[in-house]
Amino acid sequence: MAALLTGAVMLLVSPWLVLLAAALATGAGVLALRRVRVEGDPGWVVIDEFAGQWLALVALPGPSVLGLVAAFALFRVLDIAKPGPVGWADRQHGIFGIMMDDVIAGAIVAVVLGVVRLAWPRLLG
To answer: How far apart are CA 7 and CA 17, in angstroms?
Structure first.
């Protein structure tokens, strides 16, 4: 929820800011996880969730209630169910597996929301 709220604030400025933040969070997560050398996906690591949720918001033109709810719900469903490439990334060992399942889930949500925006331009914002 913290990632959603901070992402909504960034959306007020620009979707590009959210994309930049997602990229920086992904890079910072990789660097931080390299230093602590964790195995598996420890529950205390949340930077991957921030990166994925922020990436999910990139397709929104601004922080509308429906858009934020859709981005949050779709991201959580993909993060929990881990279908297709999300599950594949989650099964990878080390830093890649920890970070990329959430980044891939966020990217999928961004594509879905982008398609929805093309089909129904006023629906999400």
So the answer is: 9
In terms of C-beta density within 10 A (0-12 exposed, 13-18 middle, 19 or more buried), how is residue 86 classed?
buried
**Helix (H) or strand (E) segment spanning residue 18:** helix 15-36
Banded model confidence at residue 38, pLDDT cuts 50, 70, 90: low
CA distance 34 to 22: 18
The stretch 67-90 carries a mean pLDDT of: 96
15 within a domain of the structure (yes/no): yes
Contact 58, 20 (CB under 8 A): no
d(CA 25, CA 54): 9
Count of domains for the chain: 1
Tell whether 124 is covered by a domain: no
Per the structure, the complete domain to which residue 111 belongs is given by 2-119
CA distance 13 to 8: 9
* pTM, entire model: 0.91
Confidence (pLDDT) at 39: 64
Task: Say how many residues make up the chain.
Answer: 125
